[in-house]
Design a protein that fits this description.
globular; alpha+beta; Arc Repressor Mutant, subunit A; single chain; about 120 residues; 3 strands; three-stranded antiparallel beta sheet; about 50% helix
Amino acid sequence: MTDIDASTLYGTLNLLLLQALEHEPGHGLEIQRRIERLSEAALNVEEGALYPGLRRLERDGLVTSEWGISDARRRARFYQITRKGRARLARERASWLDTVRAVGRVLRIRPEEVG
């Protein structure tokens, strides 16, 4: 799979970060790796976007954080999605799906063409 240009996904960082935290908390590097793994290496959230994004989500009450020790035995801030964050994730996921469907119709992409 080819890398996706960051400008293509402008505005989706919150959605990606919240999705990466949906099932379990994680520290920054874990979150970054989850997104990369789930996208089959097509998406790489750079640190310069990752940490400001996580701070913004925390400021907005969508995630909480606390200090802990990572598997590498280093001090790390662990993030966890809140109830408010789960509600936002559901809304943003639905909105993204509507957008994908609309763009697909314009581009005349058949459902079987999408992996």
